[in-house]
Design goal:
GMP Synthetase, Chain A, domain 3; 4 helices; about 50% helix
Length: about 110
Amino acid sequence: MESKRLSKIERLLQKELGDLFQKQTQSQPGTLISVTRVRVSADLSVAKAYLSLFPSEKSEVLMADVQKRAKTIRYELGQRVRLQLRKIPELSFFVDDSLDYLDNIDRLLHNKE
């Protein structure tokens, strides 16, 4: 069972990471990075952030840029949440391709009709 404290931390990290990515993508017109989900380990040492990337054709390039900037993103996140969290977790980023999966299923269903 997930504790209330852990879910509050996950929501806080999701909100702050979303704000960071929104500011980052303002300089890149036509791209959008949103944080769909954040999962934090019980000891708060690791956070897995799932990102939805638009356009999906550029997802590999955008993800490589995010991976390259992971330490900077963690530092900026630490500056934002330093009053709420004592320890800032290590960040791992993953592509959330659930929207692409849903589009594919929807397209397949419409082709059958």
